[in-house]
Structures are given as structure tokens and as C-alpha cells.
Design brief:
The protein is α+β, with helices and mostly antiparallel strands. 68% of the residues lie in helices and 13% in strands.
């Protein structure tokens, strides 16, 4: 029974292990920025429904009840009760196409809001990929620094024995002891970096302060790191077709064109229809019987409003709409330019990281051989502490360079996959 209870406690306290795909899926439903963008889209859908409803007649009913007290009146009945009732309908028949243009503009805005939602989701995906890769890099850096710290401890312990035996000086032993402390400090730094990167990831996922998480460590092969990339032209062309900000910029131009058309409607006459029916009653009526029928009235009206002089409001509206259209076209060019720069920068980072990884891996191989030989020579007194520490530092630097280039390459390739709408590697 005791062991069963212990198992239950351990199961409840188990920390969830997150893969990269787990993070992306969770963020799509819980990230605040994405949820706000989704609400903006839904709000725009309501505006579209309202714009469509404006094409149909409006109907309103009015009921009015009043009481009047006139104490100075000569009649015995100084109190008057009255009521009126009406039902009114109205409809805009023609307004220069403004109402239908408004519906079209709202439909375009809905598409833009939907694309803005996709854009927000992609931005979060990219941020999560970067934070996740930084976490993996920091996690592996901890392992490397722990390994070098353990090696430094063995060297220090060996040097202590040699110092006691008189084979090395006190200075040599102190140098190796200092090297061991330095390596141990780097482990602390690496753990701090890992915690900071994991905190950034938790914030992107909207996890609470008390929520803990562990990251799944995927197997990254050399083939994955050095895989051939598509041509830059192919990447740019695919990104221009896939990324939502490009399509959104195109729709912004369409919306601005409709805005200019809407502004021109101010020069056209407006025609509207109205109809109503009403009646009323009063206690002071001369004929109190059948008041509602006797006071019944019906009306139908046609209103034509012709703009003759609007203090230049219509002309100003058209001119400003033209400027807004020109700005939207410039914004479209700017969006395409910025996207091309982003994709090219990530592409160059990927190429550079692949080249650095190949060189760093080769450097690490020889640094490992040099360190092993120097360690053997130090053990038999054929190498001094400076040579040993130098070899160890070179190996540590080579490992860090290889590690950094590996994750930079994979991260850049994952970002390129997002730009192209492709499945991620991990």
C-alpha cells in the first residue's frame, strides 16, 4: 500500500516532456497574441454582418404615453392622459454605391484579419523554434562543460598526487586547480543560460511561473545539419507565395481602391424611401370614442438629396483616398522587400552555419587528439601544465563552436521551412 501511494505521488509530480511540435500545438491555442488576433478577426466578421444588414430596410416602433396636470384650467378635469403609437420603416435605395462598397470593403478586411491571424501564428512559431533551439544548445553546452569539468578534476587530482610526490611544482598544481574551478563555473553559467532560454519558451507558451517543463532532446544527425538547401531564388519565390503578410498587403491595396470608390460616392445623389403608420389618443379629445381609428395616419415618402456644395468635403475625401491608395501600394512593396531581406538573411545564416559546422567538426577532431596526447604526456612528465591547459581550452572551444554551428544550422533550416510552409525537421 505504501509503495502504491508513493507511485501515485510520483505520477502526479511528473514533469511533462515537451517536443517542439508539442510547443507549437500548445501555443496555437494558448498564446495571448494569437488569441487576440483571433478575436479581432471575429469582431471584423460582425462588422461585415452589420454592413450587409444596412442594405435592407430598417423598422422601428414607438410608443409614447404622457400625463399633463394643468391646475389653472377652468375645466373640472385638469388632468390629461394621452398616447401615441407609430411604426416606421426606412430604406436607402441609392447612395452612389456606398453601401455595397462598404460590404466589399468589410469582406476584404475579413480576409486581411484572417491573414493577420496566420501571420501572428507564424511569428509565434518562429519565436518558439528559436527559443527551443537555444534551450537545446544550452542543454548540450551543460553536458560539454560538465564533461570538461570532470576531465579537469581528474587532471587536478593527478597533479595533486604528482605534487605530493615532488614531480610537479606547487604552481603547476595551483594552475590546474584554477582550471578546474573555471570549468565548474562554466557549468553554472551554462545552466543559467538554459534556465533563461526555458523561461522565454514558457512565456511564449503562456505557462505559469510554477509550471515546470522538460524538453525532449531530438537526435540531430550530421546529414540533417549538412543537407542541401534549395536555391535562394526558389526560397524567395515560395515565401512570396506562402507568407500571409504578402497577400495581406495585396488585399490592403484592394481595400484602398474600394475606399477611393466609396469616397467618390459623395458626389452622387442619395435616394431613400420611408413609410409609417401611427395613431394616438387623449382624454381631452372632443370625440373620445374610436380615437385610435379616427387618429390613424399613414405616410409614404421619397427623399432625394443632391450634394451641391459640401465645403470641399467630398473632394478632400477623394484626394485623401487616392493618397491612401498610393501609400498602400508603397506598403506592399516594402512588405515584399522586408520579407526578401529576412529570407535571404536566414538563408545566408544557414549556409554559413553549415560551413562553420564542417570546419568546427574537423577542428574538434584534431583538438580531441591533441588533448589526449597532451594528457598522456603530462602524466609521464613530458608536458607542462600550460600545454595541458591550452590543449583543454582548445578542445572546449572547438566543441562549443561545433555545437553552436550545429544548432544555428538546424534553427535556420527550420525557419526556412516555416517561410515555405513545409514540415519541420524536428
Amino acid at each position: 500500500m505504501f509503495w502504491a501511494c508513493m507511485f501515485c505521488v510520483c505520477s502526479q509530480d511528473a514533469v511533462r516532456v515537451w517536443t517542439l511540435q508539442d510547443c507549437l500545438t500548445y501555443a496555437e491555442e494558448n498564446n495571448i497574441q494569437i488569441r487576440q488576433s483571433r478575436n479581432d478577426y471575429l469582431s471584423g466578421v460582425e462588422d461585415t454582418k452589420e454592413a450587409k444588414a444596412a442594405l435592407f430596410p430598417s423598422l422601428s416602433a414607438t410608443v409614447d404615453q404622457s400625463y399633463v396636470n394643468n391646475p389653472a384650467a377652468s375645466s373640472t378635469n385638469r388632468n390629461t392622459y394621452s398616447g401615441s403609437y407609430s411604426l416606421n420603416a426606412g430604406m436607402t435605395v441609392f447612395q452612389g454605391g456606398k453601401l455595397r462598397t462598404a460590404v466589399k470593403m468589410q469582406n476584404v478586411q475579413n480576409q486581411m484579419d484572417e491573414l493577420a491571424l496566420e501571420e501572428a501564428a507564424i511569428d509565434i512559431r518562429m519565436a518558439i523554434v528559436q527559443a527551443y533551439m537555444q534551450c537545446l544548445y544550452a542543454s548540450e553546452a551543460i553536458v560539454i562543460n560538465q564533461s570538461m569539468t570532470e576531465a579537469a578534476k581528474r587532471q587536478r587530482d593527478r597533479a595533486e598526487e604528482m605534487w605530493k610526490a615532488g614531480a610537479v611544482s606547487k604552481v603547476d598544481f595551483a594552475q590546474l586547480e584554477s582550471q578546474y574551478a573555471s570549468n565548474a563555473y562554466q557549468v553554472v553559467v551554462a545552466r543559467s543560460s538554459y534556465d533563461n532560454y526555458k523561461l522565454q519558451l514558457k512565456q511564449l507558451l503562456e505557462l505559469g511561473v510554477m509550471d515546470d517543463m522538460e524538453l525532449a532532446v531530438p537526435r540531430i544527425t550530421e546529414d540533417m545539419v549538412l543537407q542541401e538547401l534549395p536555391s535562394k531564388a526558389t526560397l524567395l519565390d515560395t515565401a512570396m507565395q506562402f507568407m500571409p503578410e504578402v497577400k495581406r498587403a495585396e488585399l490592403a491595396v484592394t481595400s484602398a481602391e474600394l475606399g477611393e470608390k466609396s469616397a467618390r460616392s459623395g458626389f452622387f445623389p442619395a435616394i431613400s424611401l420611408s413609410a409609417g403608420i401611427g395613431s394616438g389618443h387623449s382624454t381631452n379629445a372632443m370625440v373620445p370614442e374610436n380615437q385610435l381609428w379616427n387618429n390613424l395616419s399613414e405616410n409614404v415618402g421619397l427623399t432625394v438629396s443632391v450634394p451641391l456644395f459640401s465645403n470641399r468635403k467630398n473632394r478632400t475625401a477623394v484626394n485623401k483616398a487616392r493618397l491612401a491608395l498610393e501609400n498602400s501600394r508603397l506598403d506592399q512593396l516594402n512588405v515584399e522587400k522586408e520579407l526578401a531581406q529576412e529570407v535571404e538573411a536566414v538563408y545566408l545564416d544557414a549556409l554559413s552555419a553549415q560551413s562553420q559546422y564542417a570546419a568546427a567538426a574537423e577542428k574538434e577532431k584534431y583538438a580531441q587528439q591533441s588533448y589526449e596526447l597532451t594528457s598522456e604526456q603530462f602524466s609521464v612528465g613530458a608536458a607542462n601544465t600550460v600545454e595541458l591547459i591550452t590543449a583543454q581550452n582548445e578542445l572546449t572551444a572547438a566543441r562549443q563552436e561545433t555545437l553552436q554551428a550545429k544548432y544555428m544550422a538546424v534553427m535556420s533550416m527550420e525557419l526556412l521551412n516555416i517561410y515555405q510552409g513545409k514540415k519541420l525537421l524536428l
